[in-house]
Design goal:
Length: 232
């Protein structure tokens, strides 16, 4: 048996699993950094990588390894109450806990000997171990007449509104436009459990995004960001 060891770690604003988009292209503005490690952290290994606009990332669902897996799962796309086989799903609880995402390649930088790959379209929690990178090859990887089964149509985003206090916290940042766009895209996926989709709800939810505790609720108009508080 060949042991797998990570080639790098990804740094993202998603500090916990909750509220991460369910596929990479759903929050396209969020910018992340992959830092290569060990023998893989060499300029030679990324030579000519920048020719490609998109990459495949293979990674470990490291936060789920302990939990193991079951042969059937309930995909959120089916409302969370119908079962399909684990291999007929993108469930994060699977044998070998390997995930794959097609991501956008923004840049490759070398900073004091550290190879940094800047990426957009990422659906990974901060600190996820990356086990491989491959260029996305459109002529082969993109199949325009493929059918998408129960995940044929993309999820429909909801409206996101920010309270005045939340807006004023955002405005304190020089990159507030980026952060406003990022939070809007993330929360427009309505991160609440699948069975609550489309239903107003009296609960206030909290999620750790960037260095903030972001609190939001859901009503008939969509998602309302109640407040944004720095985490110590
Ligand atoms: N595109 C990938 C992942 C889809 S699931 C694939 O198809 O294989 C995306 C979900 O993975 C996110 O919503 C988040 O809840 C979960 N996730 C992200 N990073 C994780 C990690 N390190 N461990 C466990 N789950 C993770």
């Amino acid at each position: 048996m060949h042991a797998i060891s990570p080639i790098g770690t990804i740094h993202t604003p998603y500090k916990e699993k909750f509220a991460i988009p369910r596929q990479p292209n759903l929050a396209p503005s969020v910018i992340t950094e992959l830092h290569l490690e060990g023998d893989a952290n060499t300029e030679a290994a990324v030579r000519e990588l920048k020719q490609f606009s998109h990459l495949w990332l293979l990674f470990l669902f490291d936060q789920n390894i302990e939990a193991g897996w079951k042969p059937t799962v309930r995909p959120p796309r089916l409302g969370g109450n119908e079962r399909v086989g684990v291999f007929a799903s993108r469930s994060t609880f699977r044998p070998n806990a390997i995930g794959m995402s097609a991501v956008e390649l923004l840049d490759v930088e070398i900073r004091n000997g550290q190879v940094v790959v800047k990426l957009g379209n990422v659906d990974l929690v901060d600190g996820t171990p990356i086990i491989d990178i491959k260029p996305y090859i459109p002529y082969s990887d993109s199949i325009p007449d493929a059918t998408g089964g129960y995940a044929e149509a993309p999820p429909v985003p909801v409206t996101v509104q920010f309270s005045e206090p939340a807006k004023s916290v955002l405005m304190q940042h020089s990159d507030h436009e980026y952060r406003l766009q990022a939070l809007t895209e993330i929360l427009s996926q309505d991160p609440r459990p699948a069975y609550k989709k489309g239903k107003p709800d009296s609960k206030v939810y909290a999620v750790h995004l960037f260095e903030w505790n972001v609190r939001f609720s859901a009503d008939d108009d969509g998602i309302q960001v109640v407040d944004i508080a720095p985490l110590a």
